[in-house]
Amino acid sequence: MTALFREIYNAVTEFLRTFGAFQLFFLRLLRHSPGMLVSRFDLVVMQVFNSGALSLVIIMVSGLFVGGVLGLQGYSNLSRFNAEDWTGVAAAFGLVKELGPVITALLFAGRAGTALTSEIGLMKATDQLSAMEMMAVNPVRRVLVPRFLGGVIAMPLLAAIFSAVGMFGAHLVGVEMFGVDVGSFWQQIQLTVELDDVKEGIFKSIVFGVAASLIAVWEGYNAIPTAEGVGRATTRTVVITAIAVLVFDFMITAAMI
Amino acid sequence: MLCYAGPASLARAQTSAEEQTRNTVNEISDNLIEIHDLKFSRGHRAIFDGLNLVIKRGQVTALMGPSGTGKTTLLRLITRQLIPEHGTIHVDGVDISTLNMSELYRLRQRFGMLFQNGALLTDLNVFENVAFPLREHTKLTNRLIRHVVLTKLHAVGLRGAADMMPAELSGGMARRVALARAMVMDPDILIYDEPFVGLDPISMGVIVRLVRRMNDALGITSVIVSHDVAEVSTVADCSFLISHGKVAASGSPDELRLAKSDLVRQFMHGMADGPVAFHFDAPGYEEQLLGRDAE
Ligand SMILES: Nc1ncnc2c1ncn2[C@@H]1O[C@H](COP(=O)(O)OP(=O)(O)OP(=O)(O)O)[C@@H](O)[C@H]1O
Ligand SMILES: [Mg+2]
Predict the structure, then answer these.
(1) Number of domains in chain A
(2) CA A44 – CA A47 distance, rounded (Å)
(3) Among A183, A186, B177, B272, which residue's beta carbon has the most beta carbons within 10 A?
(4) pLDDT in tens, B123-151
């Protein structure tokens, strides 16, 4: 019995310790962020390209199909009530408020997050981070902060692109395939979707962007510096980001209703 | 403990003493790095246990010792990438454990370090790798950076490889690029971790002469970690043989070669039997092969 308590106690303290370190790490990134944005914007832009532009294909293809599915589902369910005109609205709500930010964040973790984690982990394993320290360059500032900021900037943009392409997919299905009237398809969206809905989506994508980038960078920086350690850290990035995104999604949605 | 200081190194000590007065340090000391009663362990294994060592200004000092004795660890302690459990390390009279982050970074700008595996930044090409410290710490124009970098690359014979990526280099080439990068800020103290491994005889000769020439011409203090007794003998003013967490012997290469101690003789002449075990600590060989663990 005492052994059990001891184990639980150890697990809890270990968790708290990691969590505390994680928060401190976040603060360190934030502390260097403004300076990096001003003085080394080129590095940040480079990372927006790495995380953002290189994720475009997967984001757009996924967006197109998710929008298409929303169109299919929306049409087939709404047509039971003769409300096909609302197909676009159903897709728009789904994309802008939920699926855009959430699926983008999950894809982002898989595409860009893993790349960040393994890149930083390998830099650590091959002494590149130590070498920077020896050259009196702070690796947190020079390596981690631009990557973190790149992810934070790229994520909302990707989510917006996802939603836009998704709407195009819904349009293809609803209007071109099932013959919903173009005018009413888009007019209903204009009339129903409000700025607050879009804001909710933007807010979510920013939160998810911070979470996904932070986790990816943290896991890379704290990876055990071996091939196996980096591999495991990469896996953890995907798993932890997925869970964090879904939990945050629930909390934000609950708070906004 | 003290090393033989030949006339050449005495002259060098004088020039650096002049520098010292310019730096208005009240006490002029020949000792650039002083390590006192250092203790450090990894897990339960004590790597250093009461190590004392002095590195003289303006000399080439070699740290030798069997694989796994902690030479790389010692370099990391000197540059405060690791923190000792006990004991002090002074660089230029300053206890490095008292430095805050920005003072530490200022101190590190005076160091150039060649890592055992090169540690080139894999997302930058050779030129940018060498230019990296300049770009981070100076506001030199691109033209000037180009000039400096190409000069350093030329010195290691790799000016032609400026556009290659680190992944395209061989191990020896990568280390030569890393050497160029370590020199590019014109540091006061150059630390080389195994600079001679993986070099062919020609580049080896060039690099050995480069190390010596930089040390003498620029008044740098050099610390070389190496197993290579023969090469070290040609460059080092003073060698320390580290074993079992302590300095087992020190002196000029000639003194070490003539030393009577079993340990020194074993190491300098490469004999398998002697006080230095070739094997890492392990249970009995027979016992482990035939014992129950074997199943
Ligand atoms: N990160 C680490 N964690 C645990 N033990 C380590 C770590 N790094 C090194 N060691 C241990 O410390 C000891 C000294 O390692 P170090 O790399 O300093 O040896 P070395 O003298 O440089 O050897 P070599 O000549 O082979 O490079 C080794 O026995 C190694 O097992
Ligand atoms: Mg070593």
Answers:
(1) 1
(2) 5
(3) B177
(4) 999 999 999 999 999 999 999 999 999 99
* Per-residue pLDDT reduced to its tens digit, B223-240: 999 877 778 888 888 889
- For residue B66, how far is its CA from the centre of ligand 2 (angstroms)? 10
Which range marks the domain in which residue B10 is found?
Answer: 1-17+29-108+207-271
Regarding whether B262 and B149 lie in a shared domain, the answer is: no
ipTM: 0.79
User: φ, ψ for residue B113 (rounded to 5)?
Assistant: -130, 130
Q: pTM above the 0.90 mark?
A: no
Give the minimum alpha-carbon distance from A136 to chain B in angstroms, rounded to a whole number. Answer: 5
User: How many Å lie between the alpha carbon of B265 and the closest alpha carbon of chain A?
Assistant: 34
A63 has a pLDDT exceeding 80? yes
pLDDT confidence of residue B273: 66
CA-based nearest residue in chain A for residue B102: A136
Cβ contacts of A138 on chain B, cutoff 8 Å: 105
Boundaries of domain holding A91: 24-256
C-alpha B76 – ligand 1 centre gap (Å)? 11
In a domain, A138, yes or no: yes
